[in-house]
Amino acid sequence: MTTDTAITRDAAERLDAEDPLRALRQRFVCDEPDTIYLDGNSLGRLPAATPGFLDQVVREGWGTGLVRSWETWIDWSRRLGDRLAAHTLGARPGEVVLSDSTSVNLYKLAAAALDARPGRRTVLADSDDFPTNRYLLQGLAAQRGLKLVTLRSDPDLGLDQDELARTLGGATGGDIALVVLSLVSYRSGALLDMAAVNRAAEAAGALVLWDLSHAGGVIPLRLTADGADLAVGSTYKYLNCGPGAPAFLYVRRDLQTRLRQPVWGWYGQRDQFAMGERYEPVDGLDRFLVGTPPLLSLAAAEPALDVLEQAPVTLLREKSLRLGELAARLAEAWLTPYGFRPASPPDPVRRGSHLALAHPDAERVCRALRARGVICDFRPPDRLRIGMAPLYTRFTDVWDGLDRLRRLMGSRGHEQLSTARPRVT
Amino acid sequence: MTTDTAITRDAAERLDAEDPLRALRQRFVCDEPDTIYLDGNSLGRLPAATPGFLDQVVREGWGTGLVRSWETWIDWSRRLGDRLAAHTLGARPGEVVLSDSTSVNLYKLAAAALDARPGRRTVLADSDDFPTNRYLLQGLAAQRGLKLVTLRSDPDLGLDQDELARTLGGATGGDIALVVLSLVSYRSGALLDMAAVNRAAEAAGALVLWDLSHAGGVIPLRLTADGADLAVGSTYKYLNCGPGAPAFLYVRRDLQTRLRQPVWGWYGQRDQFAMGERYEPVDGLDRFLVGTPPLLSLAAAEPALDVLEQAPVTLLREKSLRLGELAARLAEAWLTPYGFRPASPPDPVRRGSHLALAHPDAERVCRALRARGVICDFRPPDRLRIGMAPLYTRFTDVWDGLDRLRRLMGSRGHEQLSTARPRVT
């Protein structure tokens, strides 16, 4: 694709026509032709099969089957976790479950990892990581009297991996119990090299806990091959499992029995329904489960995986890179004159599947754009995130969305909005 | 009701005809006329309006509204919590949220309470409490080096409240940081006197954390008036919010800012979407929230509350007592000859809404009974639980269910089943 052809809408249409994944868009509900959705990185679209499947779970499973349905449901956290492990995460059976929220899973695994390294007093994190991750680590560090060291990452380019490697290999490396990082930055989209980080941490004797929320379903992952210790991630973004769907939790097989998480619930108990007196965690991954999973939300993972499994992640990545390249070129040509500045790594292979654009008035621009049918999102202080979900985002969506954005800026339409920030953005 | 009339099916039919709540059964899906459901204490029935409501949330909220729907959804944990507070719990607005699982909520509140009583080293619990509660406290005690004192409760009659009061008022009382109790025992159904326990604990300077899973929706609760500190409870039993629905969490208003729970997630953060650097919990109840709630499972609370609010809990309790009395009389007349023994407090006002029957072969009996269309459940080691949900259980259901049970025993039908215990019971 050259700059010239990328800039015309015809060129975008040709890219759609040549897209090997184009048929998959029909597997999603896209019932507002005038809406351009560039926010699948925040909440993925509804798979077309999901309403019917959920209605069946509700009417037949709950309504008719009643409590008997738990004979089937009891396995779903594991079964759906195994499917995700195989297709998306590059992990082995018995290494992934769907449970709780991403935050609760991160808490459980971080606490378990810290308990497994009692002699070490330092947690290493990213100053620009997603808020909940930073807060959770602040809480754990405060509760255990540990030192939380946050590496300053560039808000556009992400963490400096050389600095990370130096810290791990340096004088304090031996005191680091745990490193917590997002593989793809929620704000800039900056992508880290997982295998390299894992190697450096292993050499330092530290465990690594990855947040894969913005990576799952768009970045080819090989957790086993890359030596990943621990990971969590959201399932409601590129995995399309629905609002607040139970998150995934990964623990490498040989680590499972060596770790013990702090929330000792009956779903982690050996022979759960024997209801024995003392807590004895299961040998395998189930020890990281706690209570009864929210079954209706969990069930939505089934039809979502049915669609996801139609596309190898390598193909999703390839399309995502091309979508990102188109967005970056259009932004440069059309939006720089209006004061936008790219706020993601310039090299597409260093990015996940969203592109950040900085603009002093980004919050109002985002709202004004939504009023014009283009949904992307705002992240403080001044970033617009353009999310491209390769399963259903078309090249023409990117073209049309950024075209509407440049026209908005040309008409200064956003300046009519109040500057009061709404609660939810 | 006299023993004579209670024993005939005609008498049970008359009780149904006179039941002021009888019309509410039509608000639930009861589509298998031959199935007798006596397990609403484990998973409540599906409200008839729920499938339609959920389909709308899925198609319109998620499918069409996409990420914009969070502008509405962001309040649902609180809004639905407030409805439950007002109708069911006797609590004030801003004192109840729906979030996470019962187990995770119990962990958060227990940890918060322990941190608020740093000088005290003892946790008081019930040896016969629901497993997850016992395990969670074992975990917290182990992690913090606290002493977990479990009072031996009678497996049929529940905790001896005089002994509890003596312990709280005795020499060790001043070391007790927290008392964790189920208001209604999951196994025997034994009901405690909440106000009396709260008073004794307050006098000792200890906090009380109630598990109301088997009480919510069947026992009139007055958390504010009875001076309750903290509570959690399941919403999928008598509240009919669906399998694994987010649990409720209550913290008395004046305690909220004095407590800080250990899982510092972004849903507890002041000005959540500003995504500030340091965790600063909200002043109110939201500080007990963690991550994104499983919205589809949460949404099912809406139609469930619509039905629940049709019946004051005092009326539900009245019917529940009469259902329990009928079950107890029939069991005595019909089942004692087959080796059953009542395993609940004999006084109906000391029971919740289920009745336990002990039988050496209870597990196989339970399975054989299910095969004959009567669904109740088994709890180790030898208890059959007969659950009566006053919103939809009929007097004839109790009569027919126990009639089928006596006929099963008469034919020794259960003896044909294997004694191998299935995984889910």
The helix/strand order of chain A is HHEHHHEHEHEHEHEEEHHHHEEHEEEH
Please state the CA-atom Rg of chain A, rounded to the nearest Å.
Answer: 22 Å
First CA to last CA of chain A: what distance?
34 Å
Question: Quick one: overall form of chain A?
Answer: globular
CATH superfamily of the largest domain in chain A: Type I PLP-dependent aspartate aminotransferase-like (Major domain)
CATH topology of the largest domain in chain A: Aspartate Aminotransferase, domain 2
Describe this structure in words.
- 2 copies of one chain form a homodimer.
- The first copy, chain A, is α/β, with parallel strands linked by helices.
- Helix content of chain A is 39%, strand content 13%.
- Chain A folds into 2 domains: 151 residues, Alpha-Beta Complex (Aspartate Aminotransferase, domain 1); 235 residues, 3-Layer(aba) Sandwich (Aspartate Aminotransferase, domain 2), CATH 3.40.640.10.
- In chain A, strands 2-8-7-6-5-3-4 form a 7-stranded mixed sheet, sandwiched between helices.
- In chain A, helix 2 packs antiparallel against helix 15, helix 5 runs parallel beside helix 12 and helix 13 runs parallel beside helix 15.
- At the A-B interface, helix 3, helix 4, helix 6, helix 7 and helix 11 of A face helix 3, helix 4, helix 6, helix 7 and helix 11 of B.
